Amino acid sequence: MLREKLSEEELKLLRRSFEIIGNIAIIEIPEELIGKKELIVNAILQKHKNIKTILRKVGEVEGVYRVAKYEKVYGEETETIAKEHGCRFLVDPTKVYFSSRLSTERERIARLVKNGERVLVMFAGVGPFAIVIAKLSKPKEVVGVELNSIAVEYFRKNVKLNKVENVVLMEGDVAEIVPKLDGEFDRILMPAPYSAESFVHLLKGKIKKSGFIHYYTFESENFEDQLNKKVEELFMKNGMLVKAVFMRRCGSFAPYVNRYVVDLEYIGEI
What angle in degrees, to the nearest 10, is found between the helix axes of 103-112 and 128-136? Predict the structure, then answer.
């Protein structure tokens, strides 16, 4: 759409992919193309008629709450409803972390959950993993732990919005809450690739034998074939014997650096 409106050099700088969350588009515009902002915005609006707001990403996901920095380049409203797998999620990407690019991964995990499982979702955000699991499978209970008070409010609203009754929301730091949780879980999710490594020790005594852990991390493509062993050794250092049974890329982070998930079967304490 912009081939005849931008030079060859400008086209090379143009970011061709962008994320859509509900009726919000999140784009990246390099500084060299700021002068062409209106052309880029109009092209997106022409292609995607449902878009009400366009946010330009100006800072990476960072901080305890994992929220990126954005500026509005079109529209005003930053709250929207994202739909996936029969679920609806009220969310404001300028205040809480949410990625529509993890939709396929959320469905994959939900399909693995067996009837009657007790599931723990650490770093639960606005509840997408917990609620998709509750909707698509038949767990006994899904416990979600989240620190960001704004995300917690959205999580509460999303539980009501999706009418899921077996989701338990707990507000606070996983380091304080997880040790106090009663009993063991059949499955634990750690969907915080920035910091999951620092919280592995919390799982000791909280996962059943033959239960599963879904561990998310960032890694260079150059070391992808060593990732399973690296994660197994990380758990071993924390007194837990696990076996990597599956690994896949589930998003990119930077050139040659991806988000990965490693599915681990828990063997027992060392």
Answer: 50
